[in-house]
Amino acid sequence: MAASHATIAIDAMSGDHGLRVTIPAALQALKTWSDITLVLVGREAEILEALAEHNETPNERLRVVHADQVVEMDDLPSKALRQKRQSSMRVALNLVKDDQADACVSAGNTGALMAMSKFVLKTLPGIERPAICTAMPTMKGHVHMLDLGANVGVDGENLLQFALMGSVLVSQLDDNPAPRVGLLNIGEEEIKGPERIRHAHRLLLQTPLNYIGYVEGDDIFKGDTDVVVCDGFDGNIALKASEGVAKMISFHLKKAFGRSLLTKLAGMVALPVLRHFQQTIDPRRYNGASLLGLRKIVIKSHGGADEFAYFHAIGQARLEVQKAIPQMISEQLAQLMATLEQQDTVHESEQQAV
Amino acid sequence: MAASHATIAIDAMSGDHGLRVTIPAALQALKTWSDITLVLVGREAEILEALAEHNETPNERLRVVHADQVVEMDDLPSKALRQKRQSSMRVALNLVKDDQADACVSAGNTGALMAMSKFVLKTLPGIERPAICTAMPTMKGHVHMLDLGANVGVDGENLLQFALMGSVLVSQLDDNPAPRVGLLNIGEEEIKGPERIRHAHRLLLQTPLNYIGYVEGDDIFKGDTDVVVCDGFDGNIALKASEGVAKMISFHLKKAFGRSLLTKLAGMVALPVLRHFQQTIDPRRYNGASLLGLRKIVIKSHGGADEFAYFHAIGQARLEVQKAIPQMISEQLAQLMATLEQQDTVHESEQQAV
């Protein structure tokens, strides 16, 4: 495999829509990027049939690997891990483990994907907990946030690791040499959140990361932070609340334009503008969350992703392969730990000198 | 005081804009509701001057009480409590304590207002921690959420009390005999959030409250829940993230319509529709958070509230006086506790019988 070529294993069966979404998205990705090869993993007969509907057959850049089982959206992670060893998700991850693919994309259930990925691919040396990271639109561009639900009840050192991983991802993907890292907290002066967050704050101040301090919920979308770091519980709440508000606003906007003939006409006049607006904040363009901290690349697509959104998740996998994200995280983590240890040593000898 | 008449103490000096907002909002409130009396608390000379600008003087329904100090937005709660005993916030709360007013409205800093309110007015018997509760728009109407930042690190019983307080508030304000109560959590099947939430879940299942189970961040805005209960940290994150997204969307919407002459024209055609839409989700209409669990009524306005928003906070105070919210909470809490104890007794005797 050339450095610039990416072979991506697609868990073709998972997600709310399975093959109906993954097949056309995969074909679109192959058309768009000449530097990728896709391996569709799932029930071979069904995949071949779905390909035939698009007048396609397997070829050099589009391989099919059979897997009999499917991880369902409501399968418990522990059950999926024990009982779904022949699933498309598991087989796709095995391809990555065995270096037959550089990355895996799945729209399957998050808990099962994280559990299987940890088990099959293992975490990077020194990483205690992998985290889920995604980009979201802001007033000025986009922001990456992690963790979004893989870890509930992390400690300060976990948050430090999340900060490093997010920072490496953004520096590579956005060619940003010093991503601004913020720690999600609340604003009450004397409370300032749980001890784990204050601990992470103290740790981050000692790092060479471009740490800008605490950020609040509304700061996420202002565009003045590149990486927002938080516990998985808080991140999940913030992400889903944000999605909920966006849907609610879009619902009321459509309703306002649909009230009468007059408002419908106004809507027709405004349609190109509304479409441009919608593209700017289209969550589908941000589909494809990274499972950071693993030895290999795994991208989680929204379960309900459509063809356009799933296509973007494949694009995310391609970018992360090109940028060798896990290797970069591993190197930067080793450097960071060395720096922190050195500081501790200096600190200790200073204390002894006093 | 007749039962239907409300005397409301206005902390006229606090908030980002002080008298510039509180005075016109107060005058508008007096014009709108003939069943209220307002007591403006703050520096008398400045208040009289501000009133004169509106050609107004104190009268039977508009009294002025002097207070020399102002609690600043960045005053630490503990400092405000010790050193600002002559502040407009503190004097306004004292009026409520001494039954010279039925409620207090303040746009001052949340931590200081909560600390002073607890100290001056005390909590209701049996309530461990008061909570901050506000309404927010949804797809179908509105939802109340609590706690929004007063309490970080609550336990299951605190969450149970929040559920009861929110339920009482909504049942009274919305004439809703059985508000649907949801517990904010994340969706991962095997994690299901911290133990405090699972404990609250078990407790809530035993109550006569209309408890509908766990809700996720995006459920808040669907309109299928009337009361969302959470820890103050989670609530604050969810609320602020939601505010941030709404501002970001509004920013991009304006930008899309402002791009060119053509889009500006489209915007003019769509203006009445956009205005109707904006009114539906206007956060100013929802201004006025309740500090629930105190013996008296305290309403917290957004610090940055404008005249229209502050007017709504006064309206919220008026409604809560009319509905006697603290008394209702106190009664319902006593009933709930009796029910839970009875169940425990039955449960114990059943166990003994076995």
From TrEMBL, chains A, B:
GO terms for molecular function: phosphate:acyl-[acyl carrier protein] acyltransferase activity. The keyword Glycoprotein does not apply. It comes from the Bacteria. Its main location: cytoplasm. Pathway: Lipid metabolism; phospholipid metabolism. One of its GO terms (cellular component) is cytoplasm. Keywords: Acyltransferase, Cytoplasm, Lipid biosynthesis, Lipid metabolism, Phospholipid biosynthesis, Phospholipid metabolism, Transferase. The keyword Cytoplasm applies. It is an enzyme of class 2 (transferase). It catalyses: a fatty acyl-[ACP] + phosphate = an acyl phosphate + holo-[ACP]. PANTHER family: FATTY ACID/PHOSPHOLIPID SYNTHESIS PROTEIN PLSX (PTHR30100), PHOSPHATE ACYLTRANSFERASE (PTHR30100:SF1). Homodimer. Probably interacts with PlsY. Catalyzes the reversible formation of acyl-phosphate (acyl-PO(4)) from acyl-[acyl-carrier-protein] (acyl-ACP). This enzyme utilizes acyl-ACP as fatty acyl donor, but not acyl-CoA. This is Phosphate acyltransferase. The lineage of its organism: Bacteria, Pseudomonadati, Pseudomonadota, Gammaproteobacteria, Thiotrichales.
